[in-house]
């Protein structure tokens, strides 16, 4: 191996180890969703790199290695199948595949050491192979750069947890890779020195280690460096460009679903969310706690909510639709009638303790859909032009055709006073048997306008717009059947938790409130909870393992917990309003896409509940209610979203940030230790490499002396003279073309005066005479002349040591092996 190849190979091997370790650590922290580095990777990368060096050193070794690996794999597989059986082997592979999917989806509690070790070693093996190929076999700066930076880009875009230290290590190794790339381009230049690579490594590594060590002594700010106004402008610009040129309207859908609103990705529950602030609609109303629902899901399968498709009833073509599209409103009056036990009573629509008659106008902006967004107790819908309206089984409305920007409609609805003690008392007393008995009786209910209490302003509850008592009973029976149904995936401990939370409650309202409060107080809100494992029930994982999430997590958990108690509940999706108006209009974006819960009460229909911690204050119009938010949301990337959530509450309302104290403590304990281990390992590796190189070069010189001393004197003289020329070249003195050995020796003596330096014991002129004799004379040299030559070499090395200095002499001779 030439000098160029020797030093270039050594430098490249060290570079392969650094890059492979950093990329493998990055993939490890992403796959296992942890910030803790794996020492196993650092240990594994070294022998793997050396193994590849041996395997792919020549074409023949590469061919033999590939054949050998194929034979080993085949033989190993055959032995395993023979001993365990093919069925057991397939079961094991299936277990590993399930384990791997669960781990990558964020389920951290599955711990199978064998699987973990296999995954770590396989990752290190594959990455090291890739780096080795494109660093040593086919040096390609661009392929490596694109591939590896893509890993970090994807990690950032998907908001995947990763190790900062692995990124720092990668940047350092990448810079080395780039400088080596520059050095390689200079390979053809006369000033290029093959030793520059290893020299660069040895000079720069200790400096970088010291800098990294000092850096880790300072407190770590978890948030990235951010310029808020610049971040906001960049995000808005990117959103505008994407919306304009992508060709895909993220807010375009036939029927609304949280998963395709731009806030999420699919209908499958869980996973990290990337914020989308597309402006979808404008809403004019006097009530900021308006919840506009567009989808209600009855069926839960452990991973998603869904509704039976294809059941739509046409309400005809018209401009105005009254209570025929929402029997829930009529049912509410039935409930009031039943609870108040009166034959006749009047309710002022603008002044009562139960609800307030309200109005709203909805206008689509950047949205295309058939869905109509309505509050739960709507009783009047008016369009600007005739529309054919469809009603599904969940009483969700839609138009026959997709509507887009500019489409608008007006609503009238009853805004429930959910804080009213009188309404709460009625809901507590709601009883299936009492309500249904009362409904069978005849009552005369007058709903009066705010400025009149005359019968002329009344509406009979049993008119054509109201559902007959028998239909209401049938509907209630159907609701109790459909909305208490649960799949087998719901675990016994979820049912036990529902019982435990509500053990002291005597009615369905208090049970629902207890579950709502339990979820909002004990489970921190975050948009980055990780993906739940495929093999687990979503609600079970959230309640007992994940323990943090966003609205779909809370709403799903509350719905399932209520159904465990045989309380009818349903999962609802739609939009809430932003906390403040702009120019008299609530400008709703996809950041307000939301999921909540509706609970069925006999005689009152569906009543909304809000278990999602930061939004409880909004539904109940009580800005003093506190919220529990995960520390993940303190990342500067969520600044705007956090400000929005803060505006749902008063500034004085308490906010509890849930810091993972166990993780923090462990991290605080492990980080210095881990840093010390890594630094020590790196220093140890450097010392080991340097010691190995120095030892090799020392023994090479020792071998050279032994060969000169023991060999044929004439041959030994030629070897010795070649070494002397190499040593003199290090001092910048070389044999000129056409210059005889005698002329060269005289010039060297004039420069170094070796004869005087050795106190007349030896001189280069005498040694050159021995060389000429060995090369051109038939007379053989004597062993004494060889001994004098060896003595000259020692004198020359002393002279070089004196002129170069201890460090340069040792570095060049023992580490670079230049002489």
Automatic annotation (TrEMBL):
* Residue spans crossing the bilayer: 7-31, 37-56, 63-82, 110-134, 141-158, 164-180, 200-220, 673-699
SMART domains (UniProt xref):
TGc
Which UniProt keywords are listed? Membrane, Transmembrane, Transmembrane helix
Keyword Nucleus carried by entry: no
Q: Gene3D superfamilies recorded for this chain?
A: 3.10.620.30
What is a single Pfam family found in this protein's UniProt entry? Transglut_core
Q: Could you tell me which residue ranges the Transglutaminase-like domain spans?
A: 543-613
The molecule here is called Transglutaminase
């Amino acid at each position: 191996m030439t000098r160029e190849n020797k030093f270039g190979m050594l430098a490249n091997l060290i570079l392969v180890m650094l890059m492979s370790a950093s990329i493998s650590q990055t993939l490890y922290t992403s796959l296992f969703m942890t910030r803790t580095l794996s020492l196993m990777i650092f240990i594994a990368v070294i022998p793997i790199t050396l193994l590849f060096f041996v395997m792919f050193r020549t074409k023949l070794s590469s061919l033999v290695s590939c054949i050998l690996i194929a034979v080993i794999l085949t033989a190993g597989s055959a032995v395993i199948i023979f001993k365990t059986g093919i069925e057991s082997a397939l079961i094991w592979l299936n277990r590993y595949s399930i384990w791997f999917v669960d781990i990558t989806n964020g389920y951290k509690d599955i711990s199978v050491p064998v699987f973990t070790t296999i995954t770590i070693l396989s990752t290190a093996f594959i990455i090291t192979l890739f780096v080795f190929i494109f660093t040593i076999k086919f040096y390609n700066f661009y392929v490596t750069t694109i591939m590896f930076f893509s890993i970090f880009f994807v990690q950032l875009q998907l908001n995947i947890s990763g190790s900062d230290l692995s990124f720092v290590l990668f940047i350092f190794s990448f810079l080395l890779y780039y400088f080596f790339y520059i050095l390689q381009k200079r390979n053809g230049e006369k000033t290029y020195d093959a030793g520059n690579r290893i020299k660069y490594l040895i000079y720069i590594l200790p400096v970088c280690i010291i800098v990294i060590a000092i850096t880790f002594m300072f407190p770590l700010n978890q948030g990235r460096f951010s310029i808020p106004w610049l971040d906001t402008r960049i995000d808005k610009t990117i959103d505008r460009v994407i919306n304009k040129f992508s060709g895909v309207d993220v807010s375009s859908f036939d029927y609304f679903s949280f998963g395709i609103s731009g806030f999420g990705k699919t209908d499958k529950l869980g996973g990290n969310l990337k914020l989308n602030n597309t402006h979808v609609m404008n809403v004019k109303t006097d009530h900021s706690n308006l919840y506009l629902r567009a989808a209600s899901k009855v069926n839960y399968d452990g991973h998603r909510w869904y509704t039976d498709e294809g059941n739509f009833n046409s309400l005809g073509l018209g401009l105005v639709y009254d209570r025929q599209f929402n029997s829930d409103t009529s049912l509410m009056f039935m409930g009031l009638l039943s609870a108040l036990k009166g034959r006749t009573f009047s309710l002022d629509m603008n002044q009562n303790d139960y609800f307030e008659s309200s109005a709203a106008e909805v206008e689509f902006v950047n949205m295309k859909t058939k869905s109509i967004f309505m509050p739960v107790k709507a009783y009047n819908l008016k369009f600007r032009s005739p529309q054919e309206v469809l009603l599904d089984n969940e009483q969700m409305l839609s138009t026959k055709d997709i509507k887009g920007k500019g489409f608008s409609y007006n609503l009238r609805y009853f805004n429930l006073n959910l804080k009213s003690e009188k309404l709460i008392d009625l809901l507590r007393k709601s009883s299936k048997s009492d309500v249904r008995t009362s409904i069978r009786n005849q009552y005369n209910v007058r709903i009066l306008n705010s400025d009149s209490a005359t019968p002329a302003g009344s509406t009979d509850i049993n008119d054509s717009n109201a559902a007959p008592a028998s239909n209401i009973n049938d509907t209630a029976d159907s609701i109790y059947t459909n909305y208490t149904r649960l799949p087998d995936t719901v675990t016994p401990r979820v049912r036990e938790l529902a019982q435990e939370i509500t053990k002291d409650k005597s009615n369905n309202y208090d049970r629902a409130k207890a579950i709502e409060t339990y979820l909002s107080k004990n489970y921190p809100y975050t948009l980055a909870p990780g993906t739940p494992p495929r093999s687990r029930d979503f609600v079970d994982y959230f309640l007992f393992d994940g323990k943090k999430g966003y609205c779909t997590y809370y709403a799903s958990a509350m719905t399932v917990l209520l159904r465990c108690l045989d309380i009818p509940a349903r999962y609802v999706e739609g939009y809430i309003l932003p906390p403040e108006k702009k120019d008299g209009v609530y400008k709703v974006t996809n950041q307000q896409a939301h999921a909540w819960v509706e609970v069925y009460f006999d005689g009152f229909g569906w009543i909304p509940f809000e278990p999602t911690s930061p939004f409880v204050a909004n539904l109940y119009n009580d800005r003093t209610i506190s919220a529990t938010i995960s520390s993940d949301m303190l990342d500067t990337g969520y600044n705007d979203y956090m400000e929005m959530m803060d505006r749902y509450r008063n500034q004085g309302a308490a906010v509890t940030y849930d810091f993972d104290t166990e993780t923090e403590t462990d991290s605080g304990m492990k980080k210095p230790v881990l840093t010390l281990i890594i630094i020590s390992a790196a220093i140890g590796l450097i010392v080991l490499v340097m010691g190995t190189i120095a030892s090799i070069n020392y023994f090479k010189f020792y071998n050279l002396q032994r060969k000169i001393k023991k060999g044929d004197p004439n041959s030994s003289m030629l070897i010795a003279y070649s070494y002397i020329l190499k040593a003199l070249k290090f001092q910048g003195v070389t044999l000129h073309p056409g210059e005889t050995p005698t002329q060269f020796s005289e010039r060297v003596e004039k420069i170094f005066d070796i004869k005087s330096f050795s106190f007349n014991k030896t001189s280069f002129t005498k040694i050159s005479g021995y060389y000429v004799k060995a090369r051109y004379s038939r007379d053989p040299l004597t062993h004494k002349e060889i001994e004098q030559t060896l003595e000259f070499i020692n004198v020359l090395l002393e002279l070089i040591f004196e002129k170069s200095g201890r460090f340069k002499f040792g570095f060049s001779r023992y580490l670079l092996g230049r002489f």
